[in-house]
Amino acid sequence: MSEPLTARETVLSCDALGMVYAEGKLRTPVFDGLHLDVRKGETVAILGASGAGKSTLLHLLGGLDTPTTGEVFVAGQKMSALSDTARGALRNKSLGFIYQFHHLLPEFTAVENVMLPVLLNGTGVADAQARARELLEAVGLGHRLGHKPGELSGGERQRAAVARALVNHPACVLGDEPTGNLDEKTAATVFDLMLGLNREQHTSLVLVTHDRRLARRLDRVLELHDGKLRELEPSEV
């Protein structure tokens, strides 16, 4: 029997989160007072219209931007209380990121790209390479280890990006439209892969998407609208 959701530890959360963009005297609020708890192994979809602030929220949860108000907690640690160096180390260890565009480094091979987050944790080259090879084989790229991004198809590049996001066994993976640049069949394959690895590693997943068909397959679906987060009933998705 699976562990009850209420009994799982919280791996990522925000409290009273607010963001205001300021340019000169112009102040543009994106959202205010958001609260979110993501538990271990949970999958969460965030829906919303373009410009609603979904990517901004994901960047704040990942410690890539600083909120105007409120706090973000990753693995129980308050991000605002950490130095830039400590925040970067926590982000590399506890979070994984998958974007619409793969952001693989073009001069490096697939295995070298996936190794990088492990090396940044201070792991030796041999162990980092072994872990990267294992993940790439798990996503069906065992025959593409030495290929650079330009030699991979769009779906293969995204699968390599999934492997890179999971290589440090993070507490949570944040995905910003990770299948939005793929055709329907390839998107479904990559999404199935993400969910399979999520369940295998018990890694939480927070996914920003426009695709309600994919969102329905996650544990919870939230909508960001007019600066507020609301959990949707299954009939609303």
From TrEMBL:
GO terms for cellular component: plasma membrane. Belongs to the ABC transporter superfamily. Lipoprotein translocase (TC 3.A.1.125) family. It holds the Pfam family ABC_tran. PROSITE patterns: ABC_TRANSPORTER_1 (PS00211), ABC_TRANSPORTER_2 (PS50893). It is found in: Cell inner membrane. This is Lipoprotein-releasing system ATP-binding protein LolD. Its EC number is 7.6.2.-. The gene is lolD. It is an enzyme of class 7 (translocase). Part of the ABC transporter complex LolCDE involved in the translocation of mature outer membrane-directed lipoproteins, from the inner membrane to the periplasmic chaperone, LolA. Responsible for the formation of the LolA-lipoprotein complex in an ATP-dependent manner. GO terms for biological process: lipoprotein localization to outer membrane; protein localization to outer membrane. It is a peripheral membrane protein. Residues 12-237 form the ABC transporter domain. One of its GO terms (molecular function) is ATP hydrolysis activity. Keywords: ATP-binding, Cell inner membrane, Cell membrane, Lipoprotein, Membrane, Nucleotide-binding, Translocase, Transport. The complex is composed of two ATP-binding proteins (LolD) and two transmembrane proteins (LolC and LolE).
